[in-house]
Structures are given as C-alpha cells and as structure tokens.
Amino acid sequence: MVQGRDVLVYLPPSYASDAMRRFPVVYLLAELPIDNLKLQDAADRLAAQPGFSEPIVVLPDVPRSAGDVEQFVAGDLVAYVDGKYRTMTARISRGLGGSSLAGDAALRVGMKRHDVFSSLYLLNASIADTSSLMLDGSAANLRRYYAVAMNVSTTTSTLASNRRLHDAMTRLGIPHYYEEYDGRVEVSERVETRVLPFFSRNLSAPANPTSPAVQ
C-alpha cells in the first residue's frame, strides 16, 4: 500500500537467490484485471532465458486525476520502491508502461517525466484527444527517451487513436517503434513477447548470469 493505494510488486527469481544484485524496475500501469496479463508466469519463463535482465515489475492502482497520477507514479511510488527494494536507481534502469485505459496515464506521465524514466511502452493504450494535443509541447521530452514503443491490436477500439499518435510522433521526429497485431492474440502473449523483452533490452541492468557471454 502506497499513499492509500494498492500496489503489486513482482520480484524476479534472482531477487531471492542473489542478495547482492540490484534490479531494473518497470512501472506498468494497467486497468485490465491484472490476472489477464499473466505477468508472473511470463516473467518467470523469460527469467530462465539467456540474457533476460529480470526486472522488478510494479503494478499500481492508478489515480484517476492526471495530476495525481504524475505525482503518485513518478514521485511517491518510485521513492517507495527505491527505498524498499534492491533497485537500480538511475533513470536508465527505470521504465514505464501502460495498457488499455491506463495507457493514457502512462503517456501523460511519460511526456512530463523523462527525468525519471528512460523507456516507455504503450500496449493497446486508450489515448485521449487531450493527451494527443499535448504532444507538440512534449515532443522534446519524448525525444530524450532511450526507447519508445507502441503495440496495438487491429480489433481494439483504440486502434484509430494509436494510429493518430503514431503519425504525430513521426511528424514531430520522435523516435519510436510502432506495431499493429492480430486481435486474436491474447494481451498476455504480447506482455511476454513484446513488453517484457522491450524493457529487458532497453533498461540498463547487470548481465543475466545465464547469458553465454558471462559463462
């Protein structure tokens, strides 16, 4: 519980087995039932793969107000997690993701707090028109990200708003990866094959001991 809000924290397998190791952190805002993401199963499977960096994943109950979301996620929540867990506290080791209705909140926080997060991922994000209108004024901030990615189902109602956001980012010269995928694919599959690998690649972290490069 942080500031009266429920927060779920996934700790990778190596957190318990390697007491000296510090971990990158992914803050994932998601209003879908968390069980739908099947995040623990996916992260545990990926942890056994060579080179996967095993991030801590934080899933908070997100405030409704835009201003409250920024302070809660980028301020209160980050401070709490860094104080309680063995995290890597540099910006380059901290990522922000958003799914479904909470994707808009992640975008808003991301547009303002490039000083806190270095990578941003939007999955089927429900982008509000007001957020898209803020993009021009926030383009310089988004260009400071190490990596930005968007992934959207071709059957979701958010497809049109994601395409508009993609077009606007392209127009403004904001480097990003954009992908549309078959709507028959489960969201949990995208978490395992796209979202978690994205953060593993782009967040600075100690080498996974299972990687052939460090054997």
Blueprint (SSEs and pairs):
Layout: E1 7-10, H1 13-17, E2 25-30, H2 34-37, H3 39-47, E3 56-60, H4 66-84, E4 94-99, H5 103-112, E5 119-123, H6 129-133, H7 135-143, E6 147-153, H8 159-171, E7 177-181, H9 187-202
Parallel strand pairs: 2-3, 2-4, 4-5, 5-6, 6-7
Antiparallel strand pairs: 1-3
Helix pairs in contact: 3-9, 4-5
Please describe what this structure looks like:
By secondary structure, this protein is of the alpha/beta class. It has a single domain (7-206), classed as 3-Layer(aba) Sandwich (Rossmann fold), CATH 3.40.50. The chain is 42% helix and 18% strand. The chain contains 9 helices and 7 strands, in the order βαβααβαβαβααβαβα. It has a 7-stranded mixed sheet with strand order 1-3-2-4-5-6-7, sandwiched between helices. Helix 5 (103-112) links the parallel strand 4 and strand 5 (119-123). Helix 3 (39-47) packs across helix 9 (187-202) and helix 4 (66-84) packs across helix 5 (103-112). The protein is globular and about 45 Å long. The termini are far apart.
